[in-house]
Amino acid sequence: MTRRTVRIAMNGVTGRMGHRQHLVRSLLALREQGGLPLDDGTVIWPEPVLVGRSAPRVRALAERHGLAWSPDLDTVLADDTVEIYFDAQVTAAREPAVQKAIAAGKHLYVEKPVAAGLAQALDLARRAQDAGVKHGVVQDKLFLPGLRKLRRLLDGGFFGRVLSVRGEFGYWVFEGDWQPAQRPSWNYRAEDGGGIASDMFPHWEYVLHELFGPVRAVQARVTTHLPRRWDESGTPYEATADDAAYALFELDGGVLAQINSSWAVRVHRDELLEFQVDGTEGSAVAGLRRCRFQHRAGTPKPVWNPDLPSTEPFRDQWQEVPDNAEFDNAFKVQWELFLRHVVADGPWQWDLWAGARGVRLAELGLRSSAEGRRLPVPELTR
């Protein structure tokens, strides 16, 4: 057995997502299982090098996990033993850091959105292409158990002709006055790159694109339901970014996808994210982990009568898609694919061009809301 160490500069992992999902549940989890084995017997051993602007926080995190660290990105990028640059910073800080990593010849794996706007996202993709480095964007929702089960139904032809997709995502993010908010305050400041459309539309783009087809048009309405919030220090501030987005996406083949995203909604569903897919032969509801389905032959015959209480147990009329496999952490699964891509040239399709599609959809969604009209989504020119 040959161990192949891959050193990875990780920038922005003092934040919740970067720390918990990418560092602890992905790369450190890979180390705990003995590394990532390849078909030829080689074992990939990820070696994180933590980077960040707050030296005390980065040092504390590195010492907790026994990892190397540095407060200086330039120094880390100048190290020839570092092969991959990973970025989970706030969106506004991502573009200049990724540019530096490309110039240093590092392979790239970055969170979404990849940049603040389409022009910047395309510039990063072209720079990476010209530099000949491998590049990837986190598209974790595709690897969730619920959506993998949904894909199983799609691949098996269960739905017949898909008609529509309905998505509900969100939860109540506390304002921060009498209960601390569950999300960082920058999410609600447009000047810092915040906003739910910029955050979630890139997710919806790759989910719709991969499962149902490319988005061809969008009509959206974004709003700020809660204009006043309190930051981490308890100081009130004006929320300048949208905290809810309601959108209709038109896909290839006439499929319509309606997705609501909100940080100002109280949850009355089984999971924080759910998609209902309706087709000529059957329907399914997929969440983060579960997926239930109802076939055409088993569809009941509800009768509308508002004068009598409904006695039908609608939820009980659906069947559960079985696991039939063990589902690992969605972030870890994609990290494994990217590491195989870098070391062994394994298959990979979730690159910076795919990330740019997501930025474009968010940009068009915000523009659609501002102009109050439906906008076409053109093909992306590389």
From TrEMBL:
Residue ranges of every copy of the Gfo/Idh/MocA-like oxidoreductase N-terminal domain listed in the record? 50-135
Q: From the UniProt record, which GO molecular function terms apply? A: nucleotide binding; oxidoreductase activity
Domain named GFO/IDH/MocA-like oxidoreductase: residues: 148-284
Instruction: Provide this UniProt record's keywords sorted from A to Z.
Output: Oxidoreductase
- Which Pfam families does the protein's record reference? GFO_IDH_MocA (PF01408), GFO_IDH_MocA_C3 (PF22725)
Determine the domain of life of the protein's source. Answer: Bacteria
InterPro entries linked to this entry: Gfo/Idh/MocA-like_OxRdtase_N (IPR000683), Gfo/Idh/MocA_oxidrdct_glycsds (IPR050463), GFO_IDH_MocA-like_dom (IPR055170), NAD(P)-bd_dom_sf (IPR036291)
Q: What is this protein called?
A: Oxidoreductase
Q: Which organism is it from?
A: Streptomyces noursei (Streptomyces albulus)
